[in-house]
Amino acid sequence: MIARAQELVSYRSLVRNLVTKDLKVRYKNSVLGFVWSLLNPLLMMVIYTFVFTKLLKISRPNFEVFILAALLPWNWCTRSLSLSANSLLDNAAIINKVYFPRLVLPVATVASEAVNFLLALPALFFLMVWFRVPFTAWVVYLPVLMVIQAILLAGLGLILAALNVVFRDTGVILEVLLLAWFFLTPIFYDISDISQELAPWMYRLNPMAAIVGEYRNILYFKLPPYLLGDLRTLATALLILGAGYAFFTTLNRRLGEHL
User: Fold this and answer.
1) Cα–Cα dist 247/232, whole Å
2) pLDDT of residue 22
3) What pLDDT sits at residue 95?
4) pLDDT at 8
5) What is the per-residue pLDDT for 70?
6) pLDDT along the chain (259 residues), means of 10
7) Rg value, the chain, Cα
8) Taking phi first (over 0 means left), then psi (-120 to 50 degrees means alpha), and beta for anything else, what does residue 58 get?
9) Are the beta carbons of 221 and 128 closer than 8 angstroms?
């Protein structure tokens, strides 16, 4: 695994080129270009705010900041996994012609969506200024959360990328699983809104719940990060990355015949 990691580092320029290519292709024929990275989460925030504050009459101060602080990392998660699942199939022609570590493709997908996450953060910061939600010194902790989330998504992306080549129904099943995962993650509600018996298990069994909760604690509730919980989440992410690497490597020898 260390040797493969070193090989991946040696292909870092390829990862960078793949990320650049993905961003250029995504916004190539768009009038607003990368501005959609700001507008898309803002439009979703407006819809969620209208539904939950006007239709369902949920009362929470600065709900716009509350929902967007969780929505941005969740969008990074869902887009990374959906695109990672198809990353090998979409690049089958290149894989069959040129040698490079195939795991570069799902990793580059996660990195590309991380850039989109960074491009969308100014929208959240603007709302915090607009609604006078104060910034705290803990905002410098955001890169740590991003690293933990990137490790988790890379591991899951490796599993989905390899599995989707062998089992083509993976993408369809993933859509259902992501929808279920969305409702089991505190996006439009807070962890304090569920029963005290279930809340600890949500953090333990759902690493994205812990990650989203930390983003919201730092940016909305102005609380310090829960370091012990973050270490537990990091350990979970590393285990998933190791499992994803092992699974990808095991199937890698047979992927060529399925592409």
Assistant:
1) 22
2) 76
3) 78
4) 64
5) 95
6) 63 75 68 67 86 84 93 95 91 77 89 91 92 93 96 96 89 92 92 81 89 95 93 96 91 69
7) 19
8) beta
9) no
Distance from C-alpha of 120 to C-alpha of 215, rounded to nearest angstrom: 14
* Amino acid 144: pLDDT: 96
Residues in the chain: 259
Asked if 186 contacts 131 with a C-beta cutoff of 8 angstroms, the reply is: no
Amino acid (one-letter) located at 88: L
Report the Cα–Cα distance between both ends of the chain, in Å, rounded.
24
Count of domains in the chain? 1
Cβ-proximal residues to 40 (8 Å cutoff; 6+ apart), any chain: 75, 120
Q: How many CA atoms lie within 13 A of 13 on its CB side?
A: 1
Please name the residues in contact with 126: beta carbons below 8 A apart, sequence gap of 6 or more: none
pLDDT of residue 36: 67
Q: Is 110 within 8 Å of 158 (Cβ atoms)?
A: no
Distance CA 217, CA 188 (A): 14
Give the position of tokens 């996006």.
187
Task: List phi, psi (to 5°) of 176.
Answer: -70, -45
Structural domain harbouring 69: 2-258
The structure tokens listed for 213 are 């909760």
Contact 236, 242 (CB under 8 A): no
φ/ψ of 70, rounded to 5, equals -95, -30
Rounded to the nearest angstrom, the gap between the alpha carbon of residue 140 and the centroid of all alpha carbons in its chain is: 19
How far is the C-alpha of 29 from the C-alpha of 123, rounded, in Å?
23
